[in-house]
Amino acid sequence: MARKKRMATGFTTIKDIARECGVSVTSVSRVLSNSSYPVSAQMREKILKTAQRLNYTPNLFARGLKTNESSEIAILVPNIVNPFYTSLVSGIESVAAKEGYTILLYSTDSNNMSERKIINSIHGKRISGMIISTGSDNGEIIRILQSNSQSPTRIVLVDYPSPSSNHSSVFFDYRKGSALGVEYLIRKGHRDIIYAGLKPDRRTRTERIEGFKDVIEKAGIPFSEEALCIYDGNENAKENPEFFAGTELAKRICAKSKKSTAVVAMNDMVAFGLMNHFNRSGVKIPQDVSILGFDDNLFCEVSYPPLTTVRIPSGQMGELAAKILVDELRNDSADSYINLTIEPTLIERNTVAEVN
Amino acid sequence: MARKKRMATGFTTIKDIARECGVSVTSVSRVLSNSSYPVSAQMREKILKTAQRLNYTPNLFARGLKTNESSEIAILVPNIVNPFYTSLVSGIESVAAKEGYTILLYSTDSNNMSERKIINSIHGKRISGMIISTGSDNGEIIRILQSNSQSPTRIVLVDYPSPSSNHSSVFFDYRKGSALGVEYLIRKGHRDIIYAGLKPDRRTRTERIEGFKDVIEKAGIPFSEEALCIYDGNENAKENPEFFAGTELAKRICAKSKKSTAVVAMNDMVAFGLMNHFNRSGVKIPQDVSILGFDDNLFCEVSYPPLTTVRIPSGQMGELAAKILVDELRNDSADSYINLTIEPTLIERNTVAEVN
DNA sequence: CTGTTAGCGCATTCAA
DNA sequence: TTGAATGCGCTAACAG
Do B12 and A150 touch (CB under 8 A)? Predict the structure, then answer.
C-alpha cells in the first residue's frame, strides 16, 4: 500500500509510466526518447498512451545530464532594436524553431552582462551551438571561448571577424555593396557624390568607404577627402543616433559651397536623417539631390520619397547562419567549415534622379 | 596511477576540484553554489582559486536536476519584427539579464511550432517563468498550460486576456489611448474625423474603435459607420500589410465625397501608409488633412512630416512585466498577483493642424 | 525484444 | 565546521 515516495517535483517521470505499464524504465525510455532500439509495437503503443494520459514531459535536465546536449542555440547580438539584428535574429529563430532548437537570446548591450558571464552561462548550459554577431570586431568573445579548451560549442559568425579559422561564417560584402551603389549613381550621371556616415571605427564601415573610393576613382573622378562627410559626435547621445547624425550631416552638406548632386548614406537611418533635413529645408529629393541608402529596412517603402538603397538581406543571413549551424550540429562535420559572403543587390525606388 | 575514468565531457567538475584541493565534494559544492552553509575561510579561498584555475563552470543540467530551477524566462510572442514586440522583448531582456535570467525566445509565427510543442519544451526545461503576449486573444495557451496541473510555471501576461485570474498582467488601455487622441483632434477644432484601420478582430483593436466612438459622441458629433474605414483584405498578403492597408485606405478616403479634416490611424504603420498615398497625391499633411498615429514607433521621428501619435510604451511594458515576474519568482508570493494598466500619452509632432 | 544496473554532476540529508 | 552517502530522472552498457 505504502506508496513509494514520489514527491520531488510532481512531474510525471518515466518511472511512473513504467510502473503503470508494468514494464521496465528502460523500455519506457527507449520509446519516449525516440531511440532506434527495437521495442514491440504493442508495448510502444501502451507506453505512448499512458505517457500521454499522464501528461508526461521529459525532464530535459536529466536527459541533458546524460547526453550533454541541449538542443539550444545561443544568439549573441548587441541588441534587437537595430533593424539589422531584428531580422537577423528573426531569420535564425525561424529555422531554429523548424529544426527543433530553442533560442537563447543574449544581448551585449544589456549592461551587467559581461562577455565572460555570457560565456559561462553558455558553458553551463552545454549549449550546442551559438551564432555571434556583435557589432565590435575585436574578436574578444571568440578568444575567450577558445581559451577554454573544454568548450565544444559550435560557433557561426555573422559579420564578425574571426581571429582563428575554425568556424563557419556569413559575411556581407560591404565594399562591393557600396561600389554597386556608387556605380549606379555614376551611371545615372552623377559626378559630385558625397559619402555621409558615422566614424569608420569598424570593418563594416571602413569597407563602405573603400567601396565608395574604388568606384569614384575608377570613374576618373578626382577623389578628395572633402567627399567624406563624417559625423563624429557621441553615438549614444541620442535615442536614434544614426538618424540624428543624418540630420546634422545634411546641415553640413547644405552649408557647403560646392554643391553635390548625390549623397550616399552609410545606412538607411542616416539616409532618413538626411532626407528629414532636406525635406524641411525645401531641398527636393531627388530633383535637387539624390539619396542612396544601405540596408533596405522596413521603412524604405514608407519614407517619402521611398528610398533607393543597397540591400543587406539580414533575415536571409540569419537563416543561412542557422542552417549552417544546425547542419554542423547534426553531422558533426568535424573540421569542415563553410564561409559565405553575401552579395549586395540594389533596390531602385524614388530617391535617385538622372542628371546630365 | 591508473587515472580514474574521467572522460564523460571534458568539463571540470566539482569532483576534480575536490581531488585537487584534497577536500570533499560536499565542501566544494557548498562554496561553489553560494550555499549559506558555513565553510572555513581558507578552504573557501582555496576552492575558489582552483575552480578559477581549472576553468570550472557548473553543469546546469546537474544543478537543475537537483533544484528543478533553471533561471530561465521564456518569452512567447508572435514575432519580433513588429516594432511593438521588438521593444517589448528588448525591455524584458534588459531586466532579465540584469537579474541573472536567460531569455528563451519562442515566436508563434514560426510555423511548425504549435503551442502544444512550445508548452512541452517549457515544461521539460523546468522554466521558472514565462511572459506571454501573442496577438490573438483566445487564451488557448493559458488553458493548455493550466490543464497540466503539474506545471508550476509563473506567467505574466502582456496585452493578453486571461481566462483565469491567477497570474499578473500588464495591459495597455487602448480605449483610453484612442480617446486621448480623438480628444486632442477635437480640441484642435476637427469635427469630421475618420478612423482607419484593419478588421477589429481582437480586443486591442475593438477598444480603439470604442474609444473613438466614445469621444465623438461625447463631443456631440453625430457618429455614423461611415466614419469607420476598415481594410479587410488579407492581412498576410503583403510583406508589410499594415502599411499597404494604409495606402489603400487613403485611396478610399480621397475618393469620398464628404471630406474629412483628420484621420486617426489604427497604428503608426497604417498612418505611414496613409501618409505615403497622401504625399504622392499632393494632399498636404497637415494642411489638407491631419493624421494621428498610434504606437510611437522608431519612425515617427523619421517620417515626413514627423507623426503625431499616441504612445504605447512597449519597451517599458516589457520591463515592468519582467520585473513583476522576477519578483514573483524570487519571493514566491503565492497567490498575490498584480495587474497593471498602462496609461496612454500623446506625442505631439507635426501631422495635426489646427482648424476652425 | 526486454530488463538490471550504473552513473552523468550536483546539492543535500545525516552523521561526525 | 567537514565529509560520506543518497538520489534527482534519464540513457546506455550489458546481460538475458
Answer: yes
Grid cell 482648424 is found at B355
If you average pLDDT over residues B108-114, what whole number do you get? 70
- B57 shares contact with chain A (CB less than 8 Å): yes
pLDDT at A140: 74
Q: What local confidence, expressed as pLDDT, does residue A239 receive?
A: 73
Can B66-173+314-344 and B174-311 be said to share one CATH topology? yes
Q: Where are the domains of chain A?
A: 14-58, 66-173+314-344, 174-311
DSSP B308: P
Tell me, yes or no, if A276 comes closer than 8 A to chain B by beta carbon.
yes
Q: Using the CA of A37, give the nucleotide whose C1' is nearest.
A: C1
pTM as predicted: 0.91
User: What are the tens digits of pLDDT across the range B240-250?
Assistant: 889 999 999 99
Nearest to A96 by CA among A253, A320, A339, A337: A320
Burial of A335 (0-12, 13-18, 19+ CB in 10 A): exposed
Distance from CA(A8) to C1'(D2), angstroms, rounded = 27
Nearest to A86 among B12, B62, B86 (CB): B86
How far B272 CA sits from the closest chain A CA (Å)? 6
Question: Sheet of B193-198: strands edge to edge?
Answer: B228-231, B193-198, B262-265, B290-295, B309-311, B345-347
> Quick one: fold of B14-58?
434 Repressor (Amino-terminal Domain) (1.10.260)
Whether residue B240 lies within 8 A of chain A, CB to CB, comes out as: yes
C1' of C2 to CA of A104 (Å): 39
Residue A299, chain B, CB below 8 Å: the answer is yes
CB-based burial label for B337 (10 Å; 0-12, 13-18, 19+): middle
Query: How far: A155 CA to D6 C1' (Å)?
Result: 38
Please provide the average confidence, as pLDDT, over all residues in chain A: 89
Average model confidence (pLDDT) across chain B: 89
B107: which chain A residues are within 8 Å (Cβ-Cβ)?
90, 93-94, 97
Query: Is the distance between the Cβ of A5 and the closest atom of strand D smaller than 7 Å?
Result: yes
Q: What is the pLDDT of residue A28?
A: 95
Picking from A64, A111, A243, the nearest residue to B61 by CB comes out as A64
- Partner A contacted by B254 (CB < 8 A): no
- What three-state secondary structure class fits A327? helix
Q: How far is the CA of A269 from the C1' of D8 (A)?
A: 53
Q: What is the pLDDT of residue B299?
A: 87
| Burial category of B44 from C-beta neighbours within 10 Å (exposed 0-12, middle 13-18, buried 19 and up) | middle
- Residues of B with Cβ-Cβ distance to A123 under 8 angstroms: 11, 57
Q: Whole-angstrom Cα distance, residue A57 to residue B125?
A: 9
Residues in chain A with CB shorter than 8 Å from the CB of B61 are 60-62, 64-65, 68, 70, 125-126
Instruction: Please tell me the class of the A66-173+314-344 domain.
Output: alpha beta
Q: In which residue are the cell numbers 537543475 written? A: B64
Which whole number is the average pLDDT over B17-34? Answer: 94
Complete DSSP assignment for B185-243: HHHTT--SEEEEEE---SHHHHHHHHHHHHHHHHTTPPP-GGGEEEE-S-TTSSSSHHH
Q: Are B109 and A90 in contact (CB under 8 A)?
A: no
* pLDDT exceeds 70 at position B9: no
User: For A292-347, how does the pLDDT look when each residue is reduced to its tens digit (9 = 90+)?
Assistant: 999 999 889 888 889 999 999 999 999 999 999 999 998 866 678 999 999 999 99
Instruction: Report the CATH fold assignment for A174-311.
Output: Rossmann fold (3.40.50)
Please choose, from the candidates B194, B162, B148, the residue with its C-alpha nearest in 3D space to the C-alpha of residue B291: B194
Q: Per the CB < 8 Å rule, is A148 touching B55?
A: yes
